[in-house]
Automatic annotation (TrEMBL):
<dbReference type="InterPro" id="IPR000073">
    <property type="entry name" value="AB_hydrolase_1"/>
</dbReference>
<feature type="domain" description="AB hydrolase-1">
    <location>
        <begin position="24"/>
        <end position="277"/>
    </location>
</feature>
<dbReference type="InterPro" id="IPR029058">
    <property type="entry name" value="AB_hydrolase_fold"/>
</dbReference>
<dbReference type="InterPro" id="IPR000639">
    <property type="entry name" value="Epox_hydrolase-like"/>
</dbReference>
<dbReference type="GO" id="GO:0016787">
    <property type="term" value="F:hydrolase activity"/>
</dbReference>
<keyword id="KW-0378">Hydrolase</keyword>
<protein>
    <submittedName>
        <fullName>Pimeloyl-ACP methyl ester carboxylesterase</fullName>
    </submittedName>
</protein>
<dbReference type="Pfam" id="PF00561">
    <property type="entry name" value="Abhydrolase_1"/>
</dbReference>
């Protein structure tokens, strides 16, 4: 059931399924996707007693800013703060957190900085907290070319391109990032409706500029960004997942960051899965959530 609730900054739209007294799970989507990424994950969890909450991130779907003057920030701390605020207003003390891409980043941030709020974590592509201080350090050419869309967004041409061609642009990313996934027109259109949010472009552009230190963040998140600059370890029980056909972060691309998981941790490679892993391999994602919950006791 689609619901909404107000935090201090947003009216967050979210889907809720399962027993309201069940063990809580928050599932977070990435860019450029939406809550339908978890359509086949959710019933596998509710069948095991979970209360599953899947929010639209800021800039997506029906989620809206409450104040027209609020910076449409897509920085990592904003995503983490939104998740923390959602937990607070829903009066959820602890939840299993799961996500990928932007959503995985938000989940990692809350698990790292507020471990008492995370019963456990499932994160695709490992440790998703950005090291912004090192963002201008070049990587290998093989890794750099995969990030072409980020560099495109750094200029005004890229912002105009996303504004004018968001439907086609994001579909291209789906195809490049999940080369083995044969999604159909209806599947894409169902999620692409979320990109019609009036703040989508501003939030996306800010995200991809802030992470390279090209624009300032929202001052209200300065303290959280300062804490994240130390790349804090994650101590809660965690399963990390990586698809062996991921077109953004190829298998093994996040291995170096796995040392940041200092609690109970397992990394799993999912065959024939790309970047949108929960939608491409829902059984693997759901199993990871269930295992983390069981591990947390």
């Amino acid at each position: 059931m689609l619901k909404s609730i107000a935090t201090n900054l947003l009216e967050i739209a979210y889907d809720e399924q399962g027993d309201s007294a069940g063990w809580p799970v928050i599932l977070l989507h990435g860019f450029p996707y939406d809550i339908h990424a978890y359509d086949e994950v959710t019933p596998r969890l509710t069948a095991k007693g979970a209360r599953v909450i899947t929010p639209y991130l800021r800039g997506y779907g029906p989620t809206r800013f409450l104040d027209s003057t609020t910076l449409r920030s897509g920085q990592q701390a904003a995503l983490g703060a939104d998740l923390l605020a959602l937990l607070d207003v829903l009066q959820i003390e602890r939840a299993v957190l799961g996500g990928y891409d932007w959503g995985g980043r938000a989940a990692c941030i809350v698990a790292a900085l507020y471990p008492s709020r995370a019963r456990g974590l499932v994160s695709v592509n490992g440790y998703n907290i950005q090291n912004i201080a090192a963002a201008m350090r070049p990587s290998t050419p093989e890794k750099e070319y995969r990030l072409w869309y980020q560099y495109y967004f750094h200029g005004e041409r890229g912002q105009a391109g996303l504004t004018e061609n968001r439907f086609e642009f994001c579909r291209l990313l789906w195809s490049l990032w999940s080369p083995t996934w044969r999604f159909d027109d209806d599947t894409y259109a169902r999620s692409a409706a979320a990109f019609d949010n009036p703040d989508f472009v501003d939030v996306v552009i800010h995200s991809y500029r802030h992470r390279y230190g090209l624009v300032d963040g929202d001052p209200q998140f300065d303290e959280m960004e300062r804490r994240l600059s130390s790349t804090p370890s994650i101590t809660v029980p965690t399963v990390t997942l990586e698809g062996d056909a991921d077109g953004v972060t190829p298998q093994g691309g996040g291995q170096a960051s796995l040392k940041q998981f200092t609690g109970r941790h397992e990394n799993r490679v999912v065959p024939n899965a790309g970047h949108n892993l929960p939608q491409e391999a829902p059984e693997a994602f759901a199993s990871a959530i269930l295992d983390v919950n069981a591990c947390a006791g």
